[in-house]
Amino acid sequence: MSRPAAQSSDIAILQSQSLTTLVQRELEMRIVSGGLLPGARLNEIELAGEFNVSRGPLREAFRALEQAGLLRTEKNRGVFVRAISLEEADEIYALRAVLDEYVGRQLAANIAAEGVRELRALIEAMGAASTARNLDEYTRLNLTLHDRMVELAGNRKLVDTYRRLVKELTLFRREALSADSNAIPTSTREHREIVSAIAARDVELAGRLMREHVERGRARMHAAVTAVDVAEGGAETHTP
Fold first, then answer.
1. Which of 113, 106, 105, 104 lies closest to 191, judged by CA?
2. How far does the chain reach from its first CA to its final CA, in angstroms?
3. pTM of the full predicted structure?
4. Which of 113, 140, 98, 131 is nearest to 195 (CA)?
5. How far is it between the farthest Cα atoms of the chain?
6. Buried b (16+ CB within 10 A) or exposed e, 127-138
7. Would you say 139 and 32 are in contact if contact means Cβ atoms under 8 Å apart?
8. Side-chain-facing half-sphere of 19: CA atoms under 13 Å
9. Cβ-Cβ contacts under 8 Å for 111 (sequence gap 6 or more)
10. Beta partners for residue 157, in sequence order
């Protein structure tokens, strides 16, 4: 027996929404991981074929990612991965410093013992990744730690805002950024100090350390960009 028309329509809508969500998540993962670089043009036909979906769900995914600040649409040109400027990255860091200070204070005041154990376990995993010089794993754990800290702060609106800022910050990329060999060990030490302050219920110290951690990250970003600019300028100077 055939389904009623209304029921068939409902199923089609659910299938379309599910496909849109799957496509959106896959594209977002590629953007955040660097698989799709800022400025890259998304080919609608190729992606529809790759994902084996019609253009409808794909376009819905594009719109959702544009609203999330990860894509931009140019009339008569297509859809592109957003690239943000140093100035915009600066603004994101400044806002994150304020939010992270709030998170540190909230956690020190309210976190449960289980939450402290969870954060310490992540710190230990980050230490292992640092020792193994596994930058990809360290970066993943770093993002996981901060995201979990924001979740444990207990403010859902903050979680949404924070995640958008973190995703947008991944759009700031410069080629050949020189890696600071001390950056990961320093970052690990800073995280340990933050979690220790939270576990000790020291609200003022936890908030201050969180803010300073973000400010140091901002300073490292500026130092890396300056180093690249100097190197590129030197290369241009010596070009015959």
1. 104
2. 79
3. 0.78
4. 113
5. 79
6. bebbeeeeeeeb
7. no
8. 18
9. 152, 198
10. none
Burial 45-73 (b: 16+ CB within 10 A, else e): eebbeebebeeebbebbbebbeebebbee
Domains of the chain: 5-81 (1.10.10.10), 86-237 (1.20.120.530)
pLDDT digits (tens, 9 = 90+) for 78-118: 999 999 889 999 999 999 999 999 999 999 999 999 999 99
User: Burial level of 235, CB count in 10 A (0-12/13-18/19+)?
Assistant: exposed
**Nearest 5°: CA angle at 129, between 141 and 30?**
45
Q: Report CA Rg, the chain.
A: 21
Helix axes 135-152, 86-110, angle to 10 degrees: 60
CA atoms within 13 A on the CB side of 16: 12
pLDDT, tens digit, for every residue of 119-158? 999 999 999 998 998 888 888 899 999 999 999 999 999 9
Q: For residue 108, what are its two tokens?
A: 């020190």
